[in-house]
Every structure is written in C-alpha cells, then in structure tokens.
Design brief:
CBS domain Like, alpha/beta, 6-stranded mixed beta sheet, 17 helices, Rossmann fold, single chain
Length: 357
C-alpha cells in the first residue's frame, strides 16, 4: 500500500492566551469544560491522528463544536496547531516559511466554503479564473480554462453574470469551479453544501461524485450530516468534542459503530439506501460462466441494497456482481441482503447473540 497523501499526527489545538500552559491538563484527560472553567482556554482538538489516501474522498463529520472546521483549517495552516505534525505528500507543512506556505496554498490546495466566498464585483468567469489570475497566468489561457470549468459545472451561458444574479446552488457551482480551475492536488470543502436547499444539495453531491469519478482528486469534506457523509465518503472520521470517535469506511461506521456516540448517530439511517452491493457481497469464488452472466441478472458493486433486493428476489440463484469492465467480483443473494439489514438494525447485544447462534 502506498503512503497516505496527508498524514496528521497527534494534533492538538487550544485557543487562549497561553495554550502551552494548559497542555499538561489536556494530556491528563481533563474535560474541555473543566479546562475552560479553570483557565479560560478552549480545547478544540485533542490528539488527532489521521491518514488520507490520494484520490479519495475523506469525510470529517460531527456536530457543531466537534472541531471539524478547525481541523480542516490546519491542513493549509490557516490555523496554527498547538502541537502536532502535518505532512502533505512528504512535505512537513509546519516547517514551511510564510513564502513557502503561500506557494503551497496556491499550488497544492484549494478550498470551498459554506458561504461561497465569491467576489461580488467579479463575473462568474472572473471568479472562476481568480486563482490563475493570482498566479499571473496569461489572460487568454486563464480565460479558456475558466470557461471549461464553468461548462463542466453546468453554468455554460452564465459567464458574464454576477454572483447576486445567481441562486445559491449556482453560486456554489462557481465556488467549486474556482477551486478546481487551479488544478489542485487537494480540495478542502468546509460544509460546502450545508447552506443549500435539500434538492439542490443532493444535486451538488451527485455532481461532486461525477467529477471525482473523472478527476480522482483528494478531497477532504466537512459535514454535520451523516447521510451526506455516507454518500460521499470513501472513509469517514467522526469527531466529538475535538476527539476522533471512529474512522472507517461507510459500511464499518454503519455496521460496526465504535461507541455509543457513533451508535446514536447511525441508529436511524436507512441502511438499504446507503449500503451497496460491493460493501456486503460474498467474495468471488468459482466464477460463473459467460452464459450464466449473459442469460441471468447481474448487479454492479455500487448498486444500493434497496435497488438490488428486487433483482435477487426474482432470481433462483445468488446474483453475480460484475464490475463495469465485466470482471466478476462476487455474488449476493436475498438472504445476504435481508440478513445484513436485519442484523444492522439490531442493538449491538442482539447482533452479538445472533452471530453466535
């Protein structure tokens, strides 16, 4: 396995006049409220360690005050940590000089904010091209690239509009295009879709998934919404009071919650609309013949269980799971789907009992 693109090691952030002075209390495990009451300092992050793979969508989620937005601002040192290390593609971010840090931000990372942060006096095209303008890319080149990205996010024809003339969803598309126009290795998205109406938000999630299928960027996505995290994330980290409760793939978060906090988060999730065939299928054994696949039903790994169930119900045999290129990856049956949904909706003690029965 290759080294992670982003590595965060033992990261702490304490806000206050003398954060170093309260670190002994933090390491002793004193609560956030106790430290605030005694010292006036706020513990925002406590011993965060994460590894983020290149080309993945890594979601950090938690409720308000969990530290998720504080965490993402450490990756490009918009916030300086109290202690800890951050490495991005082998670069020690904490060792960068101010000039090196500015170049790092311009060339390696782009950020998409919740409130769009568009410049109201610039057109859509000018907003999208802004990062290239800062880099002093020639006008013709940056205009061509900006037009391509405006078209990519579905805003062709809006190039000369101003932000005030756009809907919220359209403004966020401009923000996304601006971030991608500089071709960054890493995209930081801080509650990027949270201000949008549900239908527009769902559309933006779909567009991000489609773009990621083509671009394979490394995306760090912050959200307070579990459904959004489960839909987008290759891996999810759940934060509570500045600490990591669990890191795992969506199916691990759903089916193997690490503690009561995560269990409460996932309790009401409709697993049939989140879990996919690829997450729960039986591993590939003896492959079916080409005739079996041609004559019978097949499923794709990304098919959600809600859509897979009618296919398995109408099949006399377990259904082969086949990738887009025709590779046989495994199989799944109605029993498999019903079993995983029934057990995942049980309480932890019930799951343990059922698994040993």
């Amino acid at each position: 396995m290759s080294d992670p693109l982003i590595r965060v090691e033992h990261l702490y952030k304490v806000f206050g006049n003398a954060p170093g002075s309260v670190m002994p209390m933090v390491r002793d495990g004193r609560s956030k409220n106790d430290i605030l009451a005694e010292t006036g300092h706020t513990v925002a992050l406590r011993d965060i360690s994460l590894e983020i793979e290149a080309g993945s969508i890594f979601v950090v989620m938690g409720l308000s005050g969990s530290g998720k937005s504080t965490l993402i601002r450490h990756f490009n040192r918009l916030i300086e940590p109290t202690e800890g290390a951050i490495h991005v593609d082998g670069t020690d971010v904490m060792s960068l000089s101010q000039a090196e840090l500015e170049a790092f931000r311009r060339n390696n990372m782009s950020m998409v904010f919740q409130r769009f942060a568009l410049m109201p006096h610039r057109t859509v095209l000018e907003n999208v091209a802004y990062g290239l303008t800062v880099r002093k890319v020639p006008r013709a080149e940056r205009t061509e690239k900006a037009r391509d990205w405006v078209r990519t996010v579905g805003l062709d024809g809006y190039e000369n509009h101003y932000p005030a003339q756009l809907s919220g969803g359209e403004q966020q598309r401009v923000g996304l295009a601006r971030a991608l126009c500089t071709d960054p290795d890493i995209l930081l998205m801080d509650e990027a879709f949270s201000a949008l109406d549900p239908l527009i938000r769902s559309g933006m999630q779909s567009q991000l998934i489609e773009l990621q299928d083509r671009l394979h960027k490394t995306i760090v996505f912050i959200t307070h919404d579990l459904d959004e995290a489960l839909r987008l994330g290759d891996k999810i980290a759940i934060l509570k009071d500045g600490m990591v409760s669990q890191v795992g793939r969506p199916e691990q978060i759903l089916l193997e919650p690490a503690d009561d906090y995560v269990t409460a988060f996932v309790r009401d999730v409709n697993r049939a609309r989140v879990l996919t065939v690829g997450m729960v299928m039986k591993p590939a054994g003896t492959p079916p013949t080409a005739t079996d696949i041609a004559d019978g039903p097949t499923l794709r790994p990304h098919t959600i269980l809600q859509d897979a169930l009618p296919v398995t119900v109408n099949s006399d045999h377990p259904v082969p799971v086949v990738s887009e290129d025709g590779t046989y990856e495994g199989f799944i049956s109605t029993h498999d789907i019903v079993d995983i949904l029934a057990n995942s909706n049980a309480e932890p003690s019930d799951r343990d009992e059922n698994s040993t029965a």
